[in-house]
Amino acid sequence: MSVPTDKSGALDESYYARVRDAQLVALWRVPGTDAPEPAPAESPYVWHYDELIGLLDEAGSVDLGGESDRRALNATNPGRVFGTTHTMVAGYQMVLPGESAPAHRHTPAAIRLMLTGRGHTVVEGEAVLMEPGDLVLTPGWTWHDHRNDGDETMVWLDGLDVPFVRGMNTQFYEDFEGKQLQPRLVPEDASVSRYGAGVVPSDESATTRHSPLTKYSYASSLESLRRLREVQGDPEHGVSIDFVNPLTGGPVLPTLACAMDLLPSGRASRRRRHTSSTVFCTTQGEGYSIVGGERLDWKHKDFFVVPSWTWYEHHATGDQDVTLFSMSDRPLLEPFGLYREQTG
Ligand SMILES: [Fe+2]
């Protein structure tokens, strides 16, 4: 084959049509392939509990035809067709007094952050009591059901890795036999008794990819934040804790990391950005965040999204100190050297 020496000609549209017909794309015409840094399609956005609770109440006032166990409204990022970020979906779920959601399991992993009411989630036979501010894990492919055995409506924040799992073509789902509630196999809050005090039983090693601790109570999170603030001499930008797998020190789930920040009233967090995307939910207080140059105002039970590689900072404006729960997809990035972070 001869090498052409005259390169004065140009490719016409019929060439590109033939490339398309051959199921190919010409790389030199694809925008962004040499972009120096990510430009996520997702936008900063805040979902307000007070505005959305009416929509959940409306769904709670009618018969959903056996679908009441899925009375959840998922947050769709304005820059996406599905998903709060490209890897995660968050939303509010409601269970009315006396209602339950039958046991099932799926490969997407979930966290629940309790917002109102009181009830139980059962995970692999362990019932954990859920109270406001508590973080409860339902790891991927574990049997779980929910029941409201209190007299107040339960609403919690769901956080799942569904967009990631779907993107990997690995979503599986199964109903528990008879589509009923699970039998309780161990005492209530058994994992809290085993792992919840900062110690672990001797000679025990990790046998799962997720944390063996099913619940991280808000009372103990608040206490840890309070002590940390004290020993760090009340730092200017507040303090943060990571929820960890007590057997490994790693994230609570293989795909999701959870944390909580305490920002004293009148203070602001450091400005930062990272390649992980994050959903924040206000567990106490009020304030606003500047995310990608946009101001997002929030108060208790509101949640908002910080897309990947987007600068953000939080401001606590009310009389009360702010606590912000967060979940992120950082564990998906770190094993591949894709996690980067900047402060400034
Ligand atoms: Fe589920």
CATH H-level homologous superfamily name: Jelly Rolls
Q: Taking all residues together, what is the mean pLDDT?
A: 95
CATH class equals Mainly Beta
Strand order of the largest sheet: 1-19-16-21-14-13
Output the helix-strand order: HEHEEEEEEEEEHEHEHEEEEEEEEEHE
Low-confidence stretches: none
Count of discrete domains? 1
Structural class: alpha+beta
User: What is the overall shape?
Assistant: globular
Characterization of this structure:
The protein has 344 residues and is an alpha+beta fold. It has one domain (45-195, 212-343): Jelly Rolls, CATH 2.60.120. Helix content is 15%, strand content 32%. It contains six helices and 22 strands. The strands form five sheets. The chain has a six-stranded antiparallel β-sheet with strand order 1-19-16-21-14-13. The longest helix is centred in the middle third of the chain and has 14 residues, at 218-231. Fe (ii) ion is lined by residues 104, 106, 144.
Offer a few descriptive terms:
single chain; 344 residues; Jelly Rolls; six-stranded antiparallel β-sheet; 6 helices; globular
Produce the secondary structure layout.
Elements: H1 13-21, E1 45-47, H2 49-60, E2 72-74, E3 89-95, E4 100-106, E5 110-116, E6 119-123, E7 126-130, E8 135-138, E9 144-147, E10 154-160, H3 162-167, E11 173-175, H4 190-195, E12 215-216, H5 218-231, E13 239-243, E14 257-263, E15 272-274, E16 278-284, E17 286-291, E18 294-299, E19 303-306, E20 312-316, E21 322-328, H6 330-333, E22 341-343
Antiparallel strand pairs: 1-19, 2-3, 3-10, 4-9, 4-11, 5-8, 5-10, 6-7, 6-9, 8-12, 13-14, 14-21, 15-22, 16-19, 16-21, 17-18, 17-20
This protein binds fe (ii) ion.
